[in-house]
Design goal:
By secondary structure, the chain is mainly alpha-helical. Helix content is 84%, strand content 0%. α2 runs antiparallel to α3.
């Protein structure tokens, strides 16, 4: 026995399909929004940035320490070895390592900076959720603006009082 499709059955199927599709998109959107909040949370980003840049910075420090040690060894051998040959290859190698690690640090910092700017611009619409947002600084700027307005009102009030006193002195 075959079931016949009529307009009501087709309409019900369309409605169910539409409802399920909307439910799926709403659920996916909600999950994506939660994932965005997790991935781009200011404290998590601060932690990740600290680790990445700290690791690069530690490489620069290690290279610098290696260069200083080799430089001291080179000076030592130059002073106390009288054979006339003072190889500089290891000294130049450690110097190039410092330059390489420093450039790596700069490039990583540059990429992280623009990544954060992109996240703040396109993924975080609320200013207070953006990385680097400082509520205390925003409050201080607002207070400064209010104090300037208050000072202007006080100056205007003093000016009007002086004019009023001058007018009263004329009328005496």
């Amino acid at each position: 026995m075959k079931k016949k499709f009529n307009k009501d059955n087709v309409s019900n199927i369309k409605t169910k399909f539409k409802n399920k599709t909307e439910e799926l998109f709403d659920n996916t959107s909600s999950n994506f929004e939660q994932f965005k909040q997790f991935m781009f949370a200011p404290f998590l980003l601060t932690f990740v940035i600290s680790i990445v840049i700290g690791y690069s910075f530690s490489d620069v420090i290690k290279s610098l320490t290696n260069f200083i040690a080799r430089f001291i060894g080179y000076i030592w051998s130059w002073i106390f070895d009288f054979n006339g040959s003072h190889p500089t290859a290891s000294l130049l190698s450690s110097l190039s390592s410092i330059v390489q690690d420093s450039l790596t640090l700069v490039f990583i910092s540059y990429i992280v900076f623009y990544l954060i700017k992109t996240i703040n611009k396109y993924l975080k619409k609320n200013k207070s959720q953006q990385w680097g947002y400082d509520q205390a600084h925003e409050d201080a700027l607002l207070m400064q603006e209010l104090q300037e307005k208050n000072n202007n009102l006080i100056q205007e009030n003093i000016k009007l009082q002086k004019e009023l006193l001058a007018e009263l002195r004329k009328n005496k």
